[in-house]
Design the sequence.
């Protein structure tokens, strides 16, 4: 009766849930990047009409869920579960953003891997027969993240070359039991991996071992290789972390070719926008998935992709106490066919 | 194909997962309370042998999972998923506490409702055929919570009469597809409910509407009444919040009798221990469930209980910004028979 579990960590969904709709929203810098045409909404106002950046982040989640529901011609009452989380302390981006909706809510904390975690759980809750439809959503905001994790924005603190830029963005996917695809066919749950990296300005290096661990498990469990996928896209490892994952696979004799990408390297222009090692934040992979990636899948550009966002499970307190940075990566296989 | 969903928000598990083992751990004050005999381990040292209180909280989670695994004669590799969260910023109690285990990990944030959320998702992941066994665990620590949410402990800040005392405790349940019970038969997912309470020293009042909302949905969906259960136990509403829920049901003509209890009122002695409105924190309901409640069920004292922990989804930042306090409550029905 455990036929859905294949290999050690991967689940093959018996009736792969379908993407019913998706939406994303971004800020000023996201609108200046190469994916600007793939956003449903771009705001020049970092406050999104609110009085604080935290309220702005909640407003983004509310807007993006409303828009995804509209696109699917659904009401909040049609949704069985909403799975959401964000980077803010106590995940207030989600709890305040979603409180008006009245949808049964499971709060998550997966740092920047949250879009992968929420998609995974939403897909399993549908496939397990617990609901017809579920929503996965997350967000991040440059200004809320900077003042919580690093320095107040007005201080104008210097950034290291390995630092990444937290995206001001949100993304939402509505999944359902029946639909025209693309479909969530496989889910690989991440393990916490900590190789002892202690520099919170080099998150890519801290998360890379987790990305390698989960992707290797996914390929092993499914009996597939990177060449079987049109795109393998990690969350927001950025330039350094992405290169480390490529190196890890190389040592195993597996070459990740041009189809190995990273949401953190896709969101901003690597030349004209000075974002150092790339983008980060829950909203990075969420907005890249729920715009560029799913749009290209609908257009038939890609048939089968692996979406594998990564998260760094640290806090400022853990760093102050000399702790290293545990990472995690949740992988989801999305396919045009069931 | 949606036969598991009954009513609007409740799931009736088709093959109710069994509790395989449970464990809890507490601190000095938990050991002075009326439930002291129901703890697996009680520590006089608030640091649990570590250098900081945050590391102490992680140590509690690690210890409690190891103990629950031992009691079930299982190894980490036998577990398909571990679902965990806590009150600390970025949930570092869980990520650092569980990183060595190597068990596939989904991080949660449900504030003090986390034990209900983790049990719910663990039960559904097993019932859905995604794993044989899963673990639900959470923790809280008085000293980490005080300095993060209120005042540094050495400051000796005066507490209001409506304030609750964050438990220094952790609790863990191991669930499996096959077992001798008790069984998780029903799960009702909470909605975020916010009635405009703004006083962070009166969490009970803020969470009470959510508890009423979820319990009312549970009784409506299952077609049962409070008298059908040996015990209905909310998480940590404390004295005020618990009374409010009783009043809400009274207005509906439903009398919650003596079998309506609250983990926050059970953990400490209401006379000799000056804990004001009662206990709180993720570890309160987690340690009461994984000690007193499940032990009494195993002894046959109760046959069928509703465990409904509540959480307040605020943060210090949201309160500073004048926001009210959203609450949530996740209910789980635990029965001696399938």
Sequence:
């Amino acid at each position: 009766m455990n036929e859905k579990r294949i290999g050690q960590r991967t689940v093959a969904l018996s009736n792969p849930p379908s993407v019913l709709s998706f939406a994303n929203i971004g800020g000023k810098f996201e609108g200046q990047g190469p994916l600007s045409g793939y956003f449903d909404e771009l705001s020049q106002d970092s406050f999104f009409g609110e009085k604080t950046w935290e309220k702005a982040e909640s407003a983004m989640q509310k807007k993006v869920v409303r828009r995804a529901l509209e696109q699917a011609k659904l009401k909040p009452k049609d949704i069985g579960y909403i799975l959401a989380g964000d980077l803010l302390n106590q995940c207030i981006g989600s709890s305040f953003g979603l409180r008006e909706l009245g949808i049964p809510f499971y709060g998550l904390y997966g740092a920047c891997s949250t879009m992968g975690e929420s998609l995974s759980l939403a897909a399993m809750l549908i496939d397990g027969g617990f609901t017809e439809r579920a929503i996965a959503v997350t967000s991040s905001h440059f200004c809320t993240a900077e003042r919580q994790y690093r320095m107040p924005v007005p201080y104008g603190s210097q950034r290291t070359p390995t630092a990444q830029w937290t995206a001001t963005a949100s993304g939402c996917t509505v999944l359902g039991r029946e639909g025209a695809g693309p479909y969530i066919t496989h889910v690989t749950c991440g393990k916490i991996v900590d190789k002892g990296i202690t520099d919170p300005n080099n998150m890519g290096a801290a998360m890379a071992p987790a990305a390698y661990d989960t992707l290797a498990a996914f390929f092993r469990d499914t009996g597939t290789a990177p060449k079987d996928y049109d795109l393998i896209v990690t969350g927001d490892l950025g330039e350094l972390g992405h290169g480390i994952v490529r190196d890890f696979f190389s040592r195993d004799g597996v070459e990740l070719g041009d189809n190995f990408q990273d949401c953190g390297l896709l969101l901003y222009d690597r030349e004209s926008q000075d974002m150092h090692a790339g983008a980060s934040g829950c909203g990075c992979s969420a907005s890249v998935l729920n715009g560029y990636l799913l749009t290209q899948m609908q257009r038939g550009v890609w048939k089968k992709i692996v979406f594998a966002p990564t998260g760094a499970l640290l806090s400022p307190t853990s760093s102050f106490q000399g702790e290293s940075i545990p990472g995690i990566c949740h992988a989801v296989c999305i396919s045009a066919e069931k």
Chain B has ten helices and 17 strands. Chain B touches chain A through 65 residues (CB under 8 Å). The mean pLDDT of chain B is 95.
